[in-house]
Amino acid sequence: MAWVQIRINSTKENAELISDELMELGCPSVTFVDAKDTPIYEPKLGEVTLWADTTVIGLFDASVDMQAITDQLATLPALQEQFVFKVEQLEDKDWEREWMDNFHPIQFGERLWICPSWRDIPDPNAVNVLLDPGLAFGTGTHNTTALCLRWLDSLDLTGKTVVDFGCGSGILGIAALKLGAERVIGIDIDPQALEASRDNAERNGVADLLEVYLPEDQPEFEADILVANILAQPLRELHQVILGLLKSGGQFALSGILEEQVASVEDIYSQYANLETSLQDGEWMRVAGQKH
């Protein structure tokens, strides 16, 4: 199917109004992108944060009369002072195949591979986790997830109980099970994350060893290993909760921390643990240590 897209210059105050109007006009997909490369690293929980200068992109079937669309958009009060837009014809191609071709098996550490289900497994004798890219949860391609996967690969997890705090897709917990962990407990505030973790564990044949809970439902336990790939702010605010899930001598790795944030996380956790030298991948850091 051929597609055409309209790119509209906006502000964060008007972006959602424009999006609503595009949807009313039959647009099946609306995307917000940063117009001026202004990073937003850590929105508050449940908050949708947009850039001061936001580009709103609407996708339409190429048969749609785009003149009629732009005429209608021009009537919006939010756009009457300045309506800057660009309509672009997109190349007609198999976008699903194009997207799939961008993902390949990736190795982490010595033993561990993360493999999309449509790709051949490079090393059948390795520890292989089958995980397809999704829209919301980790797949191993982000620096923060990679830092955690390499850390897990470096450990002897045989017989260990592991906590995946903020489990998302379940990638870290599933990797831990494949690497020899006896039990993994995944915790997340998003019920969809728990469902994704269960589905991915089933695909990898470890569903009977993975337990997932909302925070308010989790049982009491003390784990040997904890990994948390979230963000610096909740890592700081929830340090007592996180450390409370570990037994004395338990090991942990914390990720989702920017280089300029790492000192504040280290300052808190160093009061309760012996920390290793924090490792960096791009602009992201991993803090790891052993609880006192």
Write up what this structure looks like.
The protein has 292 residues and is α/β, with parallel strands linked by helices. The chain has 2 domains: 3-92, Alpha-Beta Plaits (2-Layer Sandwich), CATH 3.30.70.120; 144-291, Vaccinia Virus protein VP39 (Rossmann fold), CATH 3.40.50.150. The protein has 9 helices and 15 strands. The protein has helices at residues 15-24, 66-73, 95-100, 143-153, 171-178, 191-203, 232-237, 239-244, 262-269; strands spanning 3-11, 29-34, 53-61, 85-90, 106-108, 112-115, 127-130, 161-165, 183-187, 210-213, 223-229, 246-258, 273-275, 279-281, 284-291. Strands 8, 9, 10, 11, 12, 13, 14 and 15 form an 8-stranded mixed β-sheet that branches. A 4-stranded antiparallel β-sheet has the order 2-3-1-4, with helices on one face. β5 and β6 (112-115) form a beta hairpin. The longest helix is centred in the last third of the chain and has 13 residues, at 191-203. The radius of gyration is 22 Å and the shape is elongated. It starts with a strand and ends with a strand. 35% of the residues are buried. Residues 38-48 have low confidence and may be disordered.
